[in-house]
Each structure stands twice: as structure tokens, then as C-alpha cells.
Write a structure and sequence with these properties.
By secondary structure, the chain is an alpha+beta fold. Helices cover 46% and strands 22% of the residues.
Length: 250
């Protein structure tokens, strides 16, 4: 989900509990397979694979499953026709939407995404239509309970982090994409448990919405993320605590 705003942390905390575990594992498996196809099966020499394996472990994917995914990536079969793409579009209220896709049927993915956006009052855009509104950053999320904010912040900044945000229940640490793994390793080496670490698209500016439109955007994001081919969805919409509480109660 989008960037390092409050919703990003909430979505991560809710992710495994709310998503069908099989669907989650499917998304993680595809990421591992493609990482292997692109950079080989040795994580020591394949940064994308290292990150994909770590994300799978964060989601409690069994080691046997991870190994099978690596083996699939090294072989042929079903992984041969996999593709990845980023689609751009607009949601309710004209908010920007970026959709990362990883699947085996581009035409099906495009049709499903276009239809879902259209039903929500949005539309699929051309390449470059909204991507200029986003920058790529590494985002590390840490549960704040029992941790001293200053200690965590100093550990992160000393390791090369660019920014630090206290969201109450969580700390969000922003890094350059290339520094994500270094900062994570430093934090874990200092005994700080990392809840999640991944490269995200973060909007340069957030768009405020009225309650009705914000809830429509949240519903759209959930529908997109339910698709097997969709790996991640990002938006420049801003969601207040009050809107999130209202949405959670629906």
C-alpha cells in the first residue's frame, strides 16, 4: 500500500490476518521465482532474491516452500511466461494509482485492472501519466512497543537511513532503495526486530479527500490487491485516523 503513511503500517499489520494465506503465498512465490530467473538462485549474489526471501520469511512462509520457488525459477515450466509491469491510473477523486503486477497473462491483468478502475469511477492511464508523482524508497517498519524512539532513530540514521517517522504504534524508516538491506541488517544486529522491509513507491505529495471519496479509494485498493496478479498498489491519497477507523468498521 501507499508509501509510508499510516495506512501502510496498518495494512502490513493486518495483511496476514485478513488475506487468504494461499493468495499471499502465491504473490510471494512469484516474486521469488522471477528474482531467480533474473539474477540466479544464490541470494548472496542476488539482492532482489534476498529481499524476496526475507519478505516470505516475514510472512511465515515455510522454508520448503521457498526452496521450491527457487527451484522453479531455476527451471522452466510455469515460470517461463511470467512478466512484471507497473500500470498507472486514476481512482475516485482523481487520485493517482500505481499498480505493480507480476503474473503470467498480461492481457488478463490489463483487462481486470481496467475494469476494476472503471467500476470505481477511475481509469487506466498511459505510461508516465502519474509515475512522476512518486519516488522509490526503502521503507522499514518497526513496532514501537518497548523501544526507545531516540535509540532506534540513531541506529537507523547511523546506518544510512534518510528519514524517521513515529506513527505511534510503529516507527517507519526511509532509506535509499540500495541501502535498505544495510539499514535492516544494522537494526537487527542491534537487537531491534524489523516488522517489514521493502522497496515502495512513495508519493512526493499526498492528496486530502473527503470521507466518502477516501473510503471509495480504500475499497478500490482492496479490490486491486485481491487480484492474484497484483503485487502492490500505491496511491497519493492521504487517509486520516478517523477515516481509517470508519473504514475498518464497515
Amino acid at each position: 500500500m501507499s508509501g509510508h503513511n499510516k495506512w501502510s503500517s496498518i495494512k502490513h499489520q493486518k495483511g496476514i490476518a485478513d488475506a487468504k494465506r494461499g493468495q499471499l503465498f502465491t504473490k510471494l512465490s512469484r516474486e521469488i521465482i522471477l528474482a531467480v530467473k533474473q539474477g540466479g538462485g544464490n541470494p548472496d549474489g542476488n539482492a532482489r532474491l534476498r529481499l524476496a526471501i526475507q519478505k516470505a520469511k516475514d510472512a511465515s512462509m515455510p522454508n520448503d516452500n521457498i526452496k521450491r520457488c527457487i527451484d522453479k525459477g531455476l527451471g522452466a515450466g510455469e515460470s517461463a511466461n511470467m512478466f512484471e509491469a507497473v500500470f498507472e491510473g486514476y481512482g475516485p477523486g482523481g487520485v493517482a494509482v500505481m499498480i505493480e503486477v507480476l503474473g503470467d497473462n498480461r492481457n488478463r491483468a490489463v483487462q481486470e485492472i481496467r475494469s476494476t478502475l472503471s467500476r470505481a469511477g477511475g481509469n487506466l492511464g498511459e505510461n508516465g501519466s502519474v509515475s512522476w508523482k512518486f519516488n522509490q524508497h526503502g521503507i522499514i517498519t518497526i513496532e514501537s512497543e518497548g523501544l526507545n524512539e531516540d535509540d532506534v532513530m540513531m541506529q537507523a540514521l547511523d546506518a544510512g537511513a534518510e528519514d524517521f517517522t513515529n506513527n505511534g504504534d510503529t516507527y517507519d524508516i526511509v532509506t535509499a532503495p540500495a541501502d535498505l538491506e544495510t539499514v535492516r541488517t544494522a537494526l537487527e544486529g542491534a537487537g531491534i526486530k524489523v516488522d517489514s522491509a521493502e522497496v515502495n513507491l512513495v508519493p512526493t505529495n499526498y492528496v486530502s479527500l473527503d470521507e466518502k471519496t477516501a473510503i471509495q479509494v480504500l475499497k478500490l485498493i482492496d479490490k486491486l490487491e485481491e487480484m492474484d496478479d497484483v503485487q502492490n498498489v500505491y496511491t497519493d491519497a492521504e487517509f486520516t485516523d478517523e477515516i481509517m477507523e470508519k473504514y475498518e468498521s464497515l
